[in-house]
Design brief:
It is built from 20 helices and six strands. By secondary structure, it is mostly helical. The longest helix is centred in the N-terminal third of the chain and has 38 residues, at 138-175. It has a two-stranded antiparallel ribbon with strand order 1-2. It has a two-stranded parallel ribbon with strand order 3-4.
Length: 478
């Protein structure tokens, strides 16, 4: 049995196979049928604007000789993309098999649907087919369709999943704002922090990228074969085509109008968007690595999944696989997003076709990221702090109090207290490379000529209480 003979067809990639459930929401916006449906929406709305004019009631149609559409006729036209399902996908594919051109196949598909219009819709006749794709080059339709597909995919699917990560982290940052945690700088014990503050760092970083994404522009153009409105003006010289173009892109398509292009919209907005998503991916990758190491260290404990196997030979294991899977999928996403960002901003003179194939991988680039968001969310929901380990780490590293002691000695020296010279060197001699106890720390403090208030303040410190204003800093995470 050949796998290629099995129906329905077996998915080639894991995004449409093993991980279909997690990535399926993007099918609605970034699949080939979704693109064709959006192309139909663009074509239909262009027809309606040309026939009914800016005010929509037909008082001033754009193209002379075209009767304005009634509300019923507009509804019929708009239903063409909305009813585009399995049968429509097959019909479009049949046209493309002949034309070898996906946008021309969309044009012919719309022609077919106009043929099916009820007789009472008198303006929808054969002559109207001339208005389909009027004065358009394929890229007029494509750039608008892709921009709308990507915009909807981001706003309806990716951003909600991303916000869930931020909201979850923010909630945990607040919950653990006062929980002391031993820091490790260069992998060595360092000034303690709080678990909540460390999570808040990621909330802050991710929220900055969220603001960039929420402010993202999605550009579009409709201006002909080389961006000059040449065919438009030749056919209808008295029309202000620049105004028509701006109206269509901004008001009808909900995009930012690009007035200056070659045959293609320049894709700079796409490069900006994919770079920002890749940046967010890399911050989340950093989070995955940190949490993985916290789990390895015992700071976080994992909740075992009932019935799950951590190892085929070691029954005791609970592996942090969600974070590992997230790492891998974020890396795959970034590699694709980086390629999209680098290549889409270049086009030979007025047009080449490299962007066409490249843009067909937008779904994969965002799909791997969406899968990683699902991995990460599942991982974050399955961990909790191990207070026993956290407290043991802190109590085993009294040497971290060397920093506040030597800094307090500096302050006392500046105030003129005797015996406070070379504070760094004195504390270094006591603590560097040694495990020391609370008693040794207190004895050292007693040996110095601190004023009573400073000595009492330093002796009251423990690794668990030496966290500065970490708890308050959590309030700045958004």
């Amino acid at each position: 049995m050949k796998l290629t003979d099995i129906t329905p067809a077996i998915a080639l990639t894991s995004l449409d196979g093993r991980y279909h459930r997690q990535t399926a929401p993007l099918v609605e916006y970034l699949s080939e049928p979704a693109l064709n449906r959006e192309r139909m929406r663009v074509e239909v709305e262009w027809m309606i604007l040309l026939a009914n004019g800016f005010d929509g009631n037909g008082n001033q149609p754009i193209v002379e000789g075209v009767a304005p559409f009634t509300e019923a006729e507009q509804a019929f036209l708009r239903a063409i993309p909305e009813d585009f399902g399995a049968e429509g996908i097959a019909a479009h594919a049949a046209h493309e098999a002949v034309t070898h051109h996906d946008v021309k196949a969309v044009e012919y598909y719309i022609d077919d649907q106009i043929d099916k219009a009820p007789a009472e819709l008198t303006h929808l006749d054969d002559r109207l087919k001339t208005l389909v794709h009027f004065a358009c080059t394929s890229e007029d339709i494509n750039n608008l369709s892709i921009a709308r597909c990507v915009k909807n995919a981001m706003e309806q699917v990716w951003l909600p999943a991303y916000r869930r990560i931020i909201d979850h982290l923010a909630g945990k940052a607040d919950e653990y704002r006062d929980m002391p945690l031993l820091s490790l700088t260069h992998g060595q014990p360092a000034t303690p922090t709080t678990l909540g503050k460390e999570l808040a760092v990621y909330v802050y970083r991710l929220t900055r990228q969220l603001r960039h994404l929420e402010a993202q522009e999605y550009l579009g153009k409709i201006n002909g074969a080389t961006g000059t409105f040449g065919a438009h003006l030749a056919a209808c010289p008295d029309v202000d085509w620049i105004a028509v173009s701006r109206e269509f892109v901004t008001e009808r398509m909900g995009l930012t109008w690009n007035p200056l292009t070659t045959q293609i919209e320049s894709h700079d907005w796409q490069a900006e968007l994919y770079s920002t998503v890749a940046h967010a991916n890399r911050i989340m990758h950093n989070l995955c690595v940190d949490v993985w190491m916290y789990i390895s260290r015992g700071v976080f404990a994992q909740v075992p999944v009932k019935g799950a196997t951590g190892s085929s030979t070691m029954p005791h294991k609970v592996n942090p696989i969600r974070f590992e899977n997230a790492e891998a999928n974020l890396e795959l996403s970034c590699s694709l997003l980086d390629t999209l960002s680098a290549t889409l901003v270049e086009s030979r003179w007025q047009r080449d076709l490299t962007d066409s194939t490249t843009q067909r991988n937008i779904g994969s680039a965002l799909g791997y990221s969406l899968l990683a968001l699902d991995n990460l969310m599942g991982g974050l929901e399955s961990i909790h702090p191990n207070r026993i380990v956290i407290e043991r780490e802190l109590d085993s590293n009294w040497e971290v109090l060397g920093e506040p002691i030597q800094t307090a000695m500096r302050a006392c020296e500046l105030r003129g207290l005797p015996g406070m010279d070379k504070p760094y060197e004195k504390v270094k001699q006591l603590m560097r490379g040694h495990e020391i106890s609370r008693e040794q720390v207190e004895a050292f403090i007693d040996e110095q000529s601190f004023d009573p208030a400073t000595a009492a303040r330093l002796k009251a410190l423990t690794p668990a209480t030496y966290t500065g204003v970490a708890a308050r800093l959590v309030d700045f995470d958004r």
